[in-house]
Amino acid sequence: MNVIDDLEMGITHVIRGEDHLANTAKHLALFRAFGVEPPKYAHIPLILNIDGTKMSKRDTGASLQTYIDGGYAPEAIVNYLYLLGWSPKENREIMSIDEVIRMFDLPQILRHNARFDIDKLHWVNGEYIRTMTIARFKELSIQALHRAGLDTTDYSQEYIDAAFATCKEKIKQFSELPAYGGFYFKEEIELDAATRAEFIPEVKTRVMALLTAFKSVRNFTADALQESLKATAKTLGVKPGLLVHPLRLAVTGGTVGPSLYHLLEIVGREKILRRLEKVLEL
Predict the structure, then answer these.
(1) Annotated catalytic, 57?
(2) Fewer Cβ atoms within 10 Å of its own Cβ: the N or the C terminal residue of the chain?
(3) Which residues in the chain land under pLDDT 50?
């Protein structure tokens, strides 16, 4: 049937997996039996799992849902896929599709099977995120946040741009964004039981001191807030780190995230003071 279909459609070139190599002689014989010139055939390497086993529909990377759930940029996926079984000159790995179209040639196809390496895809995606325009980053970030149930529509474009600017250089997949910077788009921060347990009376005393200090900061900027925290730590006779940790927990709900003083400035006085007050009510 393949031969008849190719004849009917006027196929001139057939590019398929090397697992079909054994069929090629039969197909050529059939074309010649019909008295027609056969297409040109090229066989490309199979894509295997990282351990060398044949990839099935259930394996990582074989399902489109893997890329959607993982928060990969479409252009990064395409870049990685065209490196499977093909190696451009000068061992380049990050290339636009236009460059690939200009450079690709079938004789460059590798003879050995390609292995799907999810860690390599992760790296390629990180490179694309790092170098993509802020407009593209913003587009894909909003999609990732919406999938996580975080709505950005009630926030100004200036606020969204400032928030995303603190995240762009830090994440490797868009699926990381809700946990890393989702606090920007929450009116209230919900702390889990383990986090709440960290706010023992001694820690609350430090948070209270920070709240009092921040209320007196006239210009709620990163530099002013940093100086205020350092001054508060000196007054309490503790190292700044003992204030930084509970402060980040109180205003973001997590232990890692964007630059602390910059995120304080972006979130703004009203929300930051309210989040600190909420912690003191625990």
Answers:
(1) yes
(2) N
(3) none
Q: Which two tokens stand for residue 221?
A: 């900027």
CA dist., res. 144 & res. 150, Å (int): 9
Give first-to-last CA distance, the chain, whole Å. 72
pTM of the model: 0.82
Task: List Cβ neighbours of 83 (8 Å cut-off, separation of 6 or more).
Answer: 93
d(CA 272, CA 166): 17
Exactly one of 57, 89, 186, 271 is catalytic; name it.
57
Q: In this predicted model, what pLDDT tens digit does every residue of 149-171 receive, in sequence order? A: 999 999 999 999 999 999 999 99
Give the Cα separation of 203 and 27 in Å (integer).
Answer: 77
Environment class of 93 (CB within 10 Å of its CB; exposed 0-12, middle 13-18, buried 19+) = middle
For residue 162, give the amino acid letter.
Answer: A
Q: What is the DSSP letter of 18?
A: G
- The pLDDT tens digits for 25-56 are 999 999 899 899 999 998 888 888 888 888 87
Cα 144–Cα 129–Cα 125 angle in degrees, nearest 5: 90
DSSP 72-108: --HHHHHHHHTTTTB--GGG-----HHHHHHH--GGG
SS (HEC) of 100-151: HHHHCCHHHECCCCEECCHHHHHHHHHHHHHHCCHHHHHHHHHHHHHHCCCC
Neighbours of 267 (CB within 10 A): 20
What CA–CA distances, in Å, run from 84 to 115, 174, 275, 282? 7, 23, 48, 53
C-alpha torsion angle, residues 235, 241, 247, 249 (rounded to 10)? -150
Of 46, 132, 57, 68, nearest in space to 94 by CA: 132
For the stretch 68-93, pLDDT in tens is 888 999 999 999 998 888 878 777 88
